[in-house]
Every structure is written in C-alpha cells, then in structure tokens.
Design a protein that fits this description.
Layout lengths: L8 H9 L12 H18 L5 E5 L5 H8 L3 E6 L2 H14 L4 E4 L2 H7 L4 E7 L8 H11 E12 L3 H14 L16 H10 L2 E12 L4 E5 L5 E8 L1
Parallel strand pairs: 1-2, 1-4, 2-3, 4-5
Antiparallel strand pairs: 5-8, 6-7, 6-8
Helix pairs in contact: 2-3, 5-6, 6-8
Length: about 230
C-alpha cells in the first residue's frame, strides 16, 4: 500500500501528471526553476557540496539534484513518482550529469543506506506527505554523524494561506490550483521539534519571499510563508 510508505497516492499522481513539463521553465514548475539558484547557493554555502555524497529526497524531475551535481557533488535522487524519475533520467542525456535516481521512499532507503550521505536535502516535499515527522526521521538516519540536512516547506498561518494558496494558485496562477493543502503546512516550531526528536540540531532558519512587483525571490528574515531550515546530525 502506498500509505504504508508515507505517501499520499493523490499527491504522487498529481505530480506524475505534470512530470513531462518539469524542465519547461515557463510551466507549472517555473517557481522551482526561479528559486533553485537561491536555495542551491544557500545549501552550498553551508555544506560545501563539491566532492560530497548528497541525497535529494523527493527529487521530482531533478532540478535541484542537477544543480548540486553541477557544483561537484555525487548525487542520488529518490522519489515515488516513476514518471518524474523518468523525466529526470532523460534530462541527464542533455545535461551530462551522473545522478543515481531511484524509485524508493526515504524510510525504505534509510534502512538500505543508513549514515551514508554527507548531505541530505528535502525541499518542497514535507507539505505533501501524510507524516512529515517520519520523513524527517528517515533523513536523519540517512545522513552521516555531523552531516547536513536541509528542509524547506511552507508556514501555517493566515498570511501563508493568502499568499501560497489564494495568491499563487488562484490570483497569480503561479501554481496549479490544488497544489497545496493548508492543513499540511508546517510551522517552523513544529519542524524544529520534529528535527530535534530525530536527533538533528537546528542551525539556521531563513525565509524565502516573493516580490510580485519585481517578480523576484529573495532570502531573508521573513519566514511567514516559505522558509528553509539547516540542521546537522549530532
């Protein structure tokens, strides 16, 4: 059963149906293409990706995975959408990067390769799984002691509802309607607690904001909507 491996079949299907558009920078995945340089630079600044073994959990079509590989990391990407992984593998013929893509859950892979990676990333995924604490625990098991784990997700408050759902999905049409469910958004305090319970020490919380006038994203102190968290395994 899909739910036994901490996934919502409807969520997997939703992204599978859009998979062929993953690498189209003008598609529904335009925001991922636009934020990728920001999140990639932030991750690299914290972990120094060159020469590191890196796992991207919920890699989708491979936008972040390829960015990390381009910086010299040895990257593995895992996802539960075979269609998204097929697109990711196909794009490797264009980019020339060597990335190991696997159809496996974070929990199952943690049993297979515990403590194997220098860096684990889990970006824009936690708000799409039934049990985010389980995913976070798996990420903690996958990273080496002292290794880096990075998360990004969406805060749960009125402002986040107004901007991430009403604004992004219904007004600006930046995302397909139904991409996010408000009840699945995660407060930074909740994410921090999940991380500490999993044996991860919280090092930095940073916000990501979108300016509709300049149509540009930036990192800063505003964590009201989108935010990223840097942790390390103790």
């Amino acid at each position: 059963m899909m739910n036994a491996i901490n996934a919502d079949p409807a969520e997997v299907q939703k992204f599978s149906e859009l998979a062929h558009r993953w690498w189209d920078p003008a598609s529904e995945f335009k925001p991922l293409h636009e934020i990728n340089p920001l999140r990639l630079g932030w991750i690299d600044g914290k972990a120094g990706l060159a020469g590191k073994t890196v796992l991207d959990v919920g890699c989708g079509g491979g936008i972040l995975a390829e960015g990390m590989a381009a910086l010299g990391a040895k990257v593995t990407g895992i996802d539960l959408s075979e269609k998204a992984l097929s697109v990711a593998r196909l794009h490797l013929f264009e980019s020339g990067h060597g990335i190991d893509y696997r159809l496996v859950s974070a929990e199952a892979f943690a049993d297979e390769a515990p403590g194997h990676f220098d860096v684990v990333t889990c970006m824009e995924m936690l708000e799409h799984v039934p049990d985010p604490a389980s995913t976070i625990s798996a990420c903690a098991r996958l990273v080496k002691p002292g290794g880096h784990v990075f998360f990004s997700t969406i805060n749960r408050n009125l402002k986040a509802y107004a901007l991430a759902i009403v604004g992004a999905e219904y007004v600006l049409n930046m995302l397909p309607r139904g991409t996010h469910e408000y009840a699945k958004f995660i407060k930074p305090s909740e994410l921090g607690r999940y991380c500490r319970n999993a044996g991860l020490d919280v090092h930095e919380l940073i916000g990501m904001s979108y300016n509709p006038l300049t149509k540009a994203y930036s990192l800063g102190h505003d964590t009201d909507v989108n935010y990223l968290l840097h942790t390390r395994r103790g």
